[in-house]
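Q: I'm writing up a methods section and want to include an example of the input and output format. Could you take the sequence below and give the corresponding predicted C-alpha cells, formatted cleanly so I can copy it straight into the document?
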Amino acid sequence: MNLSFSAHVDTMTGPMVNGDVPSSKFLDRMTSLPAVSTGIEVVKSNPVMAAPLAVAKRTSMLVAAPVFPLASLSYFMLEPLIEPVMKMLDTVAHDSLSRIESTWPLIKEQPENIKAEVEYLVLLPLTKSKECKDYVSSTYANEYARCGKGGIMATGRALICTQLIVLSDSLLWIKSVLSGGHEQKTVAIGSGR
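A: Here is the clean output for your methods example:
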C-alpha cells in the first residue's frame, strides 16, 4: 500500500485532469531538508504513525470523490484567477524558507547534528553552573589550604581571598569580552616597570 505523507502532497504531485503536473518550489525545497525528509520517512515507515494517515487519506478520498467533478469544473473556470495567486504564495513561501535557512543554517544539517546542538544549548546553563561551582569550590579549597587550615580566622581569610580572586577573574573575563577577546600585554607586579 502506497502511503503518502498527506493527501495534499499527493494532489500537489499527481497529474491533474488536463495532464499538467503542478509543482511547488517551496514543497520541493522543504522536503529536501534532511530533518523534514527523515521525519516523513519515519512517519511513513512507522505503522503506528502511518495508520492514522491512511485513514485520513481514505476519508478525504471518500468525501472528495462525490465533489471532485464539480470541484474540477469550478477549478477550470477559476484557474486563471487561482494560478497566479498560488504561484505568488509559493514564491513568497520559498523566499521565506531561504531567509530562515540563512538565519538559522542549523535546519540544513542532519537530524543527529540538530539533536546534538539542541541538547548542548538546553544543557548549557547546567554545565556552566557546574563549572562555576567547581571553580569556586577549588579556589576556596586552595585558599583554605594556603591560609593554614583551621580556626575561624583561616576560614574568614580563605573566604575573602576566594571572593577577591573570583571577582578579579570575572573582571578579567568581562574585559576580554568587551575588548573583543584580544590579549593585551600586562606588566607583572614587581617587574620594575
